[in-house]
Amino acid sequence: MDTVETRELRYFVTVAEELHFGRAAERLGIAQPPLSRAIQQLERRVGVTLLDRNRRGVTLTGAGQVLLDEARAVLDGAAAAVRRTRRAASATNRLTLATKAGANHELLQKLLDAHAAEPDAAEIDVLLCGMGEQARMLRDGRADVALMQRPFDVLAGFDTEDLLTEQQIAIVPAGHPLATRTNLTMADISDLADLPVARWPGHDGTYEPGPGPEIHDLSQLAQLIALGHTVGVICASARSWLWSAHAAIPLTDSPHVTTVLAWPPHSRSLAVAGLVRTAAHIGVRQPFAASR
């Protein structure tokens, strides 16, 4: 097989994401005919059909889905190589840590304070992101390390250090009858007709079907709970952002969640190694109870 160019992979990923040559061309800032020719050339190089084209539109073949996944990894790797090379050439001793906005504030502060007290500690820039974005940021080099959660985040391909294991809690409107309970089960909240459970995006960014609202971040969740439109399930440590219009009740049968520090396994950064050592010293591995 002839060598595939990163430009061709970028073109293919854009078409595969848009499933429309016109929109893909507009997004890439090129005309549609050269884009179509580039995809045809790519198919000739790999020797398989990547896209089915018909009057109803464009769809990925099975082989096309495989290439989409692999091409994203290749493009992320190329971007990461450039970013990390530039950081390596910099005279500054800095790290970028990605974390979900609003999550694990106390744990993050504890980690940052402990690391800052170490001799020759790297300066850490905190990059706040949305749900499930940390893995992509690690892979494409925008972040050196990240706070992630098992079992919610995809940790495959990363090295990790466990920091905190804890229960989950239900957040309900303060005026709701459930607000007086000392504890709840998952069945208690899943059966509520007047207060459907909020839905978070999965690993692929899509939502499971259900009556509850689709949630993108904790700020959105907080307001919808306060308005009496939903009930939220979150980690116990995230209750620091609760409003007076909220009530937090421990969930006795929800799976425990473990927050980890994650980093690329091929990292040779001394700064990353230093932060990992700090994480190993402060890690709280026993389950963290969700008190009311």
Automatic annotation (TrEMBL):
Cross-referenced SUPFAM superfamilies: Periplasmic binding protein-like II, Winged helix' DNA-binding domain
GO molecular function: DNA binding; DNA-binding transcription factor activity
Keyword vocabulary terms for this entry: DNA-binding, Transcription, Transcription regulation
Family as reported in the entry's similarity comment: Belongs to the LysR transcriptional regulatory family.
GO CC annotation: protein-DNA complex
Protein name (Swiss-Prot/TrEMBL): Transcriptional regulator, LysR family
InterPro entries, A to Z: LysR_HTH_N, LysR_subst-bd, WH-like_DNA-bd_sf, WH_DNA-bd_sf
Family matches, as Pfam families: HTH_1, LysR_substrate
PANTHER family for the chain: HCA OPERON TRANSCRIPTIONAL ACTIVATOR HCAR, TRANSCRIPTIONAL DUAL REGULATOR HCAR-RELATED
Sections of the chain in a coiled coil: none
